[in-house]
Amino acid sequence: MENLPLKPLLFLFTAAALACATPALARGKATGEAAQHRPPSPARLAQQERMRSCNATARTQSLHGAPRKEFMRGCLRKH
Question: How many domains does the chain have?
């Protein structure tokens, strides 16, 4: 078997991989982009509002670290 130079082969394989991957990347990563444009569900909107409210309260109380974590856990359960 003859010795083939590895750099040209590596270049060819890399070029072939990029050529095959480029159309998939141009489509917007197939399902990833479509999932980002879906409107949030009512349950998700409610959860986001609870987080905003609890975060605002924790901020006004200047809570940090473990006390903040404990407060957030309890606050999110109450709502």
Answer: 1
Q: Is residue 12 part of a domain?
A: no
Give the structural domain span for 67: 39-79
Q: Is residue 55 part of a domain?
A: yes
Residue with tokens 């409610």: 46
Reported confidence tier of residue 69, pLDDT bands at 50, 70, 90 = very high
Q: Is residue 3 part of a domain?
A: no
As a whole number of Å, the end-to-end CA separation of the chain is 73
Q: What pTM was computed for the model?
A: 0.51
Per residue in 10-58, pLDDT (tens digit) is 777 787 777 777 666 666 655 555 556 789 899 999 999 999 999 999 9
